[in-house]
Amino acid sequence: MTRARLSQASIKKGAVVLATVLLALTLGFVVYNHQRGERYAEAVRLAEAGDTSGAYAIFVGLGGYADAAQRGAGLVEKDPAVPYRRAAKGDVIDFGSFEQDGNEANGPEPIQWIVLERFDDRLLVLSADVLEARQYNHVPFQDVTWADSDLRAWMNGDFFTAAFTPSQQGIIPSVLNENADQSIAGTPGGAPTQDRVFALSEQESVVYLSGSANRSDIGAAPASQAAASGPLAVSEDGTADWWLRSPGTYAFAAQYVDTAGAPLPSGANVDVLYGVRPALWIDIAEVGGGQQ
User: Fold this and answer.
1) Among positive and negative, which fits the CA dihedral 129, 131, 136, 139?
2) Which stretches within the chain are classed as H helix?
3) Does the predicted TM-score (pTM) go above 0.70?
4) Within 13 Å of residue 270, how many CA atoms lie on the same side as its CB?
5) Tell me: the pLDDT tens digits for 12-46?
6) Is 273 buried (19+), middle (13-18) or exposed (0-12) by CB count in 10 A?
7) 43: Cβ–Cβ under 8 A, 6 or more apart, which residues?
């Protein structure tokens, strides 16, 4: 066989291989697209049947297919708890938004929350990062409790208004927080408070930050770029101390969690600038009834 014939044979063979690959890719795309169409139709059926959680999960998974993203957003608009109804303890969810990258021009970033607990139709969540640097109270050496602190006023005022849309605010319940005395010295914890946003208590820190794993995974919190851009002290790992709401050894001190995730019951003077990790409950009950 001449060199020219060999070249022609090679070209034909290559063309056949290429055509086969293109056919396989085309068939694969057709099958994939068909499967996405079936999933889309299933999501529509679930939504019409009232299983908004199941429908939402499918629409989100379909990404840019058809109008899946718009349909998912529509479900959230009608029922803002939909994205969180399947959340479990240990999950990380996005809820609300707050300036975190230090660039206000691009708008606030989604807030990530760690699900600390799920009780029936409610989730207890803690911000994954230190979102802000603030004093517990601005007056040094002044006795103060959580009820009258600047930190509580900010969390339930400016932060609550800035971080959540009206529909999101509607699924954040006001809860009664018992503010126990300090466990060692008995420093008064003050009156019970009704809070929609709050700092964790000493007792909650014992529950959720016990053991090295929890202290590493939950307690040690990175500071956002915005929080770390000011005078907040940040460790080499980028973590920062953050406030609890319970009193320290003295009435002018409040407890905090250090950069390694360990709670400090003795506390620090309330006018120190430490990090803030808001906590709150999310009501995930089905609209107009019980959970699916």
Assistant:
1) positive
2) 3-49, 52-62, 68-78, 150-154, 160-163, 166-169, 202-208, 212-214, 225-228
3) yes
4) 26
5) 776 677 777 776 777 676 666 667 777 887 787 88
6) middle
7) 54, 55, 58, 59, 62, 68, 71
